Amino acid sequence: MGAAVARWTVAAVLLQVAGLSLFLYGFFPVKPTLRGFSGTESYRMPSCGLVSAGEQEPALPPDQLRSLYGELFGMPPVYDRLVLMVIDGLPAEFVLGRGGKPPSKEMMESMPYTQSLLAGCKAVGYHAKAAPPTVTMPRLKAMVSGAIGGFLDVAFNFNTQAFLEDNLLDQLHRIGRKLVMLGDETWIKLFPTLFARQDGVSSFYVRDTVEVDFNVSRHLEFELAAKDWTVLVLHYLGLDHVGHIGGRRSVLMTQKMKEMDDVIRRVHAASLQDNLERTLLVVVSDHGMTEGGNHGGSSYEETDSLALFIGHSVDRPHCSPYDQNEALQVDLAPTLALLFGVPIPKNNIGVLLRELLNSLTDDQKLRTLELNSWQILRLLQAQIPAFCLEDCINSEHGLEIDVHPESIEKKLCQLLSKAFASHQYSRVHQGFDFKSAEARYIGIAVDNYYGFLRYASEWLSHKATDKPFYLLISAILLMTMSCLCLMGTVSRVFNGQSLSQADHHSESYLNQHWHLDEVFILTGIFLYVISLGSSSFVEEEQYTWNFLTSTLYLIFLIKTVQSMLKGSSSTLVHRAEGESSDGNKELTPGKRDGYKLCTVLIVLVAGRVIRAWHQGGINWVHFPDISKLLAQADSSIVKFLQTISVLAVVALYSVSLMLLRARSKVLIGVWLSHISCGLLVLLHIWEDQINTTLPINHSTTSTARLFYAIASVSISATLLASPWIFPVYSTEAKPASSDSNPVKDTDSCGISNSVFLTGITYTMFWCLLQLLLQQPINAIPLLLIFLQTVSSVAHFSLDKTLHKQWVQVIAMLFLGMAGHFGLGNTNSLASIDVAGAFIGISSYSTVLSGILMFTITYGSPLMLYLGMVVYISVNNTDDISTARQLTWSYILDKMVTLPCLLPLLINSVALTSYTIVLLLMRNHLFVWSVFSPKYLYVCAATVCTYVGVLIIAMTTIYTCAVFSFRAKSYRDKFH
Amino acid sequence: MRAEATQISAFTTAAAHALCFAGLAVAHSLAGRGILVSDPALALRLLVVCEAPVVIAVFSYLRRDPRSCSFFKAAARGLIGLPVGAFLNAFGAIVLGAPVGIKYWTVTIYWSLLMSLFTFVPAACVFGTSKIDWQNVLSHSIYFTPTDIENYMISAPCHGAVLGAWLGAWPMPLDWERPWQEWPICVTYGAVAGHLVGMVVSWVLIAVHKRSGRAKAD
Ligand SMILES: [Zn+2]
Ligand SMILES: [Zn+2]
Q: Transmembrane ranges (chain B) (predicted)?
């Protein structure tokens, strides 16, 4: 049976990996982004072949760079000053109407000045479609960079919120322009060093609709009078807050819009005072809002954001301002870049807005479009490696060819060559022909450029946001299949077990009907899966796990009390049973009951303290807890607690080695190395206290490295050596073994002792490693989790009939999850401890620090997996020693099947159900802020499960293999 | 089934439960609507004060061994059982995550006294120190195997109260910002609701048990 189970399990795991990677690929597309900033090369035609990233240009001083750009561009900047006014959450509908109709009369009247500008053709407005997620920070990034970022870009930048990609503001800063920012502090998070003057307001207090905007407007008079800035960013949050409180039809809305209109009037009036009219006022909103005032999803109401331009280049004699004038939010970046004479940001997928170029000559118009096309072409080359302009031109001749191209590549090729060819054509015919003909050629060239740009932009943006639905569905199907596969395997194992149990044990009481703890576990897992569908429960998952785990252990407590009541009422039976199962341990039933009770109580009380240590979660994270208390207290208290934890772990290891009652050099060696590791951790703790000012300290780095070396050597030595030091056959059985069935007399004690030694070594060294890496405040929770592990194992080994084996395994898994949140982890990426990931690493290495980060974050579940090795060793001795047909494969089967299968099954259930939840929630308001980060955690938990199960399986298999080899050679010697 | 145990009828059970329910109803009418949300300590105190004498009196009257144990002895058992049960309930609640701040102490004490009246005190009054009966209260086997009417009477409402309180705690961490999400308001609602459901379940069980018993007799 064992081989079949193993085969099915491996198949299920492979299916799961395949499904998971398919889903990740489909749901979080990673688009190749170009690194670095656009420079002078953006004024040259992109060459074919590989895009060489190494061409570093000498860094020019800002003034020289500015004149160089001007020279290469061939025209002066259209504007000198930019006022970028962001009105958070303003739907374009409020200003521009919808479907060709002007907005309602009420809305028109609440923005009189803006409407008069629109009606007088002094302004041009667009419905600038925003890409989901329609929340502020990604939208601001899209506006300044012209790129639509994927979720993973956000997720993997968790150590800094600063925006590192090429963008408009950095480009302006590079040519020496001065920037000023007033408003939402998101800008300061994105660009911490860019602004010459800044005043950030927090968007945290959503209830406040007045102060947030007053704090921006109070600087307005000073800044409008100041002449030193080139870019003034004004970000007004009030309207968004009005929406969050009262929805679109809030009574405060018109009032707030009047206020915004007033700001527009003031800024425009100030810009008109410069006689040259060299100021461009851009009024944009980052996203719209639903009827109820929320945003984040992808409905029309949320994505319908405004882009309104007020400046001399949009003036025109005739216009119809309420036409549905569609654009993309990303179009802002290339338009502003070219209007201000800087290169277009590298990853831009936006297209120049046509009306903004009204004041340019035809030549200049074509030049800007050419630059935009070159930039998009560079981006295309990054997406389609073989894409090349020259090939396109060579393959197509003339303007007339208009066959239906079969592939997107061909289509792009055709459009591109058509655009460049018509540009060339108009250039050649300049001056020769009549004016009307020239204008016609230019018109054709402009249209061809736009044809290419729009098509390419659309294709690029779809590539960034499209979720291939069928791919996702098939990924989920794969995962479901794997889940069902695991379930089938587990049920087969259970059936096999109950059959064999019926053979051996007469006590059918165990299988009679479901027990409370078993029913509870199934209900609990069901409730947990249901709770994953609610964003609030996902945010506050620590409550769920703590609640479920404590309830499970309370049920254990009740069962223990119950068995005590039963035991004392029928002492005789119990004593007989106790004597038979105890064998070597001299425990009276009373004492044993006491221990059973104590161990459960330890787990419960420790769990409560862990719960109180970190408040955790998202919403109530500011509530008082023990860690905040300690952070305020003297740091020596924390050091003291750390020291206590280290000493306790070292002492416990010595005690548990003593329990083995074996004298061996290996044992002493491991013991000494553990003590030295403990000393190293202590040293690290105390060194840290002396040098807290230095971020990377060389002596602490070497201490940590020494720790890694000693720990890894002693763990692998223990693993390799432990099966060899314990006897294969017990000494009493030796004489008999020569004639009777030799396998039967195998001393199962030897094998469990050796697994015990390996397991306890794993666990204890893991504890020390965690004490080294985790934040100092987490020392006591770590110790408590460790105590919980040990107590659970002790409890389960004291009375093996009280709970079924699968209940015990799942109880340990629950403890691991509760501990995971007890160490301060949450379901937001912000709680990942980045500082600890660099302990002992001198140079930056993504892989190493990633492993350390994983170790820190999943310290608790992994500790329970390592504890499971100890559990295997102490829990299966009876089953094995009483079994009749004792073979090595049978022992292996007994030991390893459930502890490996159940974690995989539980994880598979959680993963599959959460994947389905994520697919269903893909348009939910919180999909990017709550559900997607949680999905990354679920994926990491899957990796954690694989690692844990692999360790358990490998250790037991290796030990069993060595024992069977030794038994065989022993038999051969005696026959 | 024990021969010496006085068989109490289904009607007695219903009457006892009705009296307990009346105690709760009186407390509720005295407190007025919504007081549990606005002043949980006061409401819980009222509930405990009204319910305690009723529960102790009713279940001491229904004690299992009326010949060897006087009414007052049973009542004394109930009085001792009240703080003991409160301690156990408070332990369970705190382990499950009930807040331990000083400002919660009074409500936690009152709540656990109330839970003790729902769970521990009736059993203490009726069963005394009979281990086998206590074991029956703790187990859920009464729902599958026929047993004494007392067991049904005591166990089902007790289990109902605990289960209701447990379920009532689920909305607590949610960010709905409702006043009733505070400890121990929704837990109390859950406990009372579960207790009442448990009473109904116990009647149903007794009725089913009776019918099957009669069928067996025929
Ligand atoms: Zn916003
Ligand atoms: Zn908002």
A: 43-62, 74-97, 109-128, 149-169, 189-208
Q: Which domain holds residue A257?
A: 80-150+164-347
Nearest to A543 among B95, B135, B173 (CB): B173
Nearest to A566 among B94, B135, B140 (CB): B135
Show which of A347, A379, A405 is a domain's final residue. Answer: A347
Once rounded to an integer, what is the mean pLDDT over residues B60-68? Answer: 83
A562/B139 Cβ within 8 A = yes
Residue in chain B lying closest to A519 (CA) = B140
Tell whether A127 is covered by a domain: yes
User: DSSP string spanning A309-346?
Assistant: EESGGG--S---TTS--EEEGGGHHHHHHHHTT-PPPT
Question: CB of B65 within 8 A of CB of B150?
Answer: no
Q: A347, A370, A405 — which closes off a domain?
A: A347
Distance from Cα A88 to the centre of ligand 2, integer Å: 7
Give which of A270, A119, A84, A117 is closest to A195, Cα–Cα: A84
Q: What is the pLDDT of residue A789?
A: 94
DSSP state, A504? H
User: Distance (Å, rounded) from C-alpha A222 to C-alpha A180?
Assistant: 12
Q: Contact, A280 vs A311, CB < 8 A?
A: yes
For the record, the structure tokens of A140 come out as 């601001």
Whether this prediction's pTM lies above 0.80 is answered by no
CB–CB of A941/A522 below 8 Å?
Answer: no
**A925 assigned to some structural domain:** yes
Measured in Å, residue A85 CA sits from the centre of ligand 1 at 13
Total of domains in chain A: 2
- Chain B residue numbers with beta carbons less than 8 Å from the beta carbon of A568 are 131
Per the domain annotation, does A541 fall within a domain? yes
Specify the CATH number for the domain of residue A198: 3.40.720.10
B170 vs A contacts (CB less than 8 Å): 527, 547
Provide the residue ranges of all domains of chain B, joining segments of one domain with +.
27-213
- CA separation for the pair A231, A236 (Å, rounded): 16
Q: Indicate whether A226 belongs to any domain.
A: yes
Q: Give the model confidence (pLDDT) of A368-426 as tens digits.
A: 999 999 899 888 888 777 777 666 666 555 444 445 556 777 788 888 888 888 888 77
Of the listed ligands, the closest to the CA of A139 is: 1
CA quadruple B201, B207, B208, B210: dihedral, nearest 10: 140
